[in-house]
Write a structure and sequence with these properties.
This protein is 43% helix and 23% strand. It is elongated, with a radius of gyration of 29 Å. It starts with 13 loop residues before the first helix and ends in a 15-residue tail after the last strand.
Length: 415
Amino acid sequence: MNQEKNPKEDFRNVVSYLENDKSEHYNKICMISIEKGSLISGRKGTKIWEELFEQNVSQVRQLLDDPALHLYYYDKWSFFLAAGKKYPESQFMLKAEQMFQECGYCFCKEHNLTVINNFHIIIGEGNLLEMIQLCMSTEKDENKRFQVYSAQNDELIRQTDEQLHMTTVISDALVNNRIIPYFQPIRDNRTKEIRKYEALMRLSDKDAHIYMPGQFLEVAKDYHLYLQLSQKMIRKVLELFRDRDECVFLNLSAYDIASEENREFILKLLSQFPRETCERIAFEILESEKVTDYDQLMEFLGALRSRGVKIAIDDFGAGYSNFKAIIQVNPDFIKIDGDLIIDCDKDPMKKLCLQAITELARGIDAELIAEHVENDGEQQTIESVQIEYTQGYYFSKPLPYSSLKPAESEVEVKE
């Protein structure tokens, strides 16, 4: 190959690839994507970026000493190597590994900049460009710069189709008011009454099919729709409980707390309710999503408390960081993680842990709520260590608002 050739000469694009694929029958692609290309281009400008890109391509081109390997331009940040069925797979992988070793970095002396290349290889039949982009977009290991994928990945296609379907469900729920609060009763183990509920989000589609949080929350976060869902949920729940006399618990994730706009939304919304309503609201800080800025958290919790709102720590017992949260937050309620509750009647160590947590709660004047209680043995253990509240399927599953019992009622029949 002529190494003096201008990098852009004969540098074919996707249209050329698709045309050549008819005769070459490509079944191997090595996509070379430049890490943070948009950041470099935005900071240094188009002219410098193009020079860097050309130098990067030249470095790779120098290793292409086989006419059966074809180089194509993909987009502003990526280019790729393609080979047909007749090209041995082992040889293609060796070439890709050689390129990664020798071209993983490209240093431009003139501008004192280094380009970092990530290599993504796909081998198999079908639309390889479509499949490799799908694999790259769903890649979880961001620290791995050399990845090999299979073109036959039905599970990935299924997951992607489900995710795209769920974005439609979420968008439809936001537009057409299909965010449905469910409420799980929290039983007072001293009075045997239901005076508290936890609000849990559900979505409904146009066919009235109900979707659980595990089906949509992560998708909502990935597509930047989570805060809209959260805000609509909080507003609905507060309106429903404006004139009720029970306490309602709402979840606040790290996403909720990290967003200044969302914090302001919550505080402004609370200002529209009388203090006696706010005093019956408790926000749960989710331990499953770690809060990184505790100063920000404490300032926000102080603003909530100034309005009479109660604070709960969720998932206590799930990790050591809970103790830091307890010390800093000084909660009104502590919700014990289900892992400590399940089979606590059969596991002496779990019972000892529950006794220790009870002593801790008494020391900071917090009340305890045992979550995920599912049978009589667990409930008897909960009561024996004097945990104030129980939440779980043993007494009731989450219910739509229309199914809530009057506040004065006593739960006598387990659902």
